[in-house]
Amino acid sequence: MRTPASRERGIALILVIWVVTLLMVIAGSFLYAMRTDARAARNAALIARGEAYAQAAVSRALIELFKPQGSPEVWKREGEPRNWEFDGARVTVRLSDESAKIDVNTANNELLKGLFRYAGASDEDAAKLLDAVLDWRDPDPLKRPLGAEEPDYTQAGLAGRPANYPFQSTEELQLVLGMRAELYQRIAPMITVYSRQAGVNPHLAQRPVLLAIPGVTAEAVDLFLSEREAARAEGRMAPIFTAAGPYASYVQTAAVTVRADVSFDDGVRVTREGVAMLSPQFPRRPYTFLAWREVSRDQDAKAPAAAEEAPVVQSR
Length: 316
Known about the structure:
Helices cover about 40% and strands about 15% of the residues. The protein is an alpha/beta fold. It has two domains: about 1-100 and about 195-315, no CATH class; about 105-180, EpsJ-like (Ribonucleotide Reductase Protein R1, domain 1), CATH 1.10.40.60.
């Protein structure tokens, strides 16, 4: 038979076990919180470093453009990646001319319609979207046959209204009635508001942009791209893309896009993209930023094959 003293010792032992267990849980929670905070602080520090490196990489790329054009070291605006490592980070920079994209303000109407069809719109939807885009950017409130003006936006329950002014950014295109999110995501890497040209530059355009040109075939585009790459490798002038017809413009613009990707070994990645207007006639301010964007991983995943990989060129 157990005595009262033994029962008290048993109760005390159980209490001690519960207290020790509780203390272990508290200590574990504290250690987990500290580890999480330390990891968050480290990631924040890496992101800050990545942002600084990305900005520096963009500035370097722009400076490289001002080397003598005949120099073999001058960086081309062909979208090919240039890689280097700096202080434990891997940096990749791409330069592309805005003439390689379709300008939503000045592009030929059929070229815009071809862009929407390439992105998956039917012929009917592409025609409606074209008229809605034209109604958005023209200065009057008159509605085109398939377009949309303020009453149509009100009827659709949209807060936005047509600007009756040219698009100030490519993101503004998302406000146009009929522009679906998935369609915009497909065309976002292919459009601009800075080239101010009716066509695109086949010498610099990526495959998806060339496929958006009305009347061209995938076979014609692939043949032209193979000839273009061969000409680049041999240092020759790129061929003329005759299939593009009136939708081609072989003039480079003063606007360029610079994209810098910075990645660290633990998976932290920072991407910044800037659009700059070059003005070499003003030595004290040779370029001006027109846009500055943070590119998320989600955007990278949704981007179409417009970001096709070119042969890697190691930076000097």
